[in-house]
Amino acid sequence: RNIPACASCHGASASNAPNAGPELAGQNEAYLASALAAWKSGARHNDTSGKMPAIAKALTDAEARAAAAYYGALPASAAGR
């Protein structure tokens, strides 16, 4: 389905590695779910790479909720917060 791993853009720990996308670890679960839903619907346009709308559209609603729950449960990195 051409869905890259979150780590491929957000870093292996999803915690803002050099040259990575924004930190995911420790973000609010509801915020992450809302952001994915907004990219999926086309309401959000702030991804400078242009990749997130296509990724969000490829995810099922259950997959998006699971990703948001997973990253929301991770502790935030000290470097990213």
Characteristic terms for this protein:
mainly alpha
Task: Walk me through the topology.
Layout: H1 7-10, H2 29-41, H3 52-58, H4 61-73
Low-confidence stretches: none
The major beta sheet can be summarized as:
none
Shape: globular
Counting helices, strands and paired strands, the structural category is mainly alpha
Helicity, in percent? 40-55%
| N- to C-terminal distance | 33 Å
Strand content: under 5%
CA radius of gyration is: 12 Å
| Average pLDDT over all residues | 87
Number of strands: 0
Specify the number of helices. 4
The secondary-structure element order is: HHHH
Structural description of this entry:
With 81 residues, the protein is an all-alpha fold. Helices cover 46% and strands 0% of the residues. The chain is built from four helices and no strands. It has helices at 7-10, 29-41, 52-58, 61-73. It is globular and about 30 Å long.
Concise description?
This protein has helices at residues 7-10, 29-41, 52-58, 61-73. The chain has 81 residues and is mainly α.
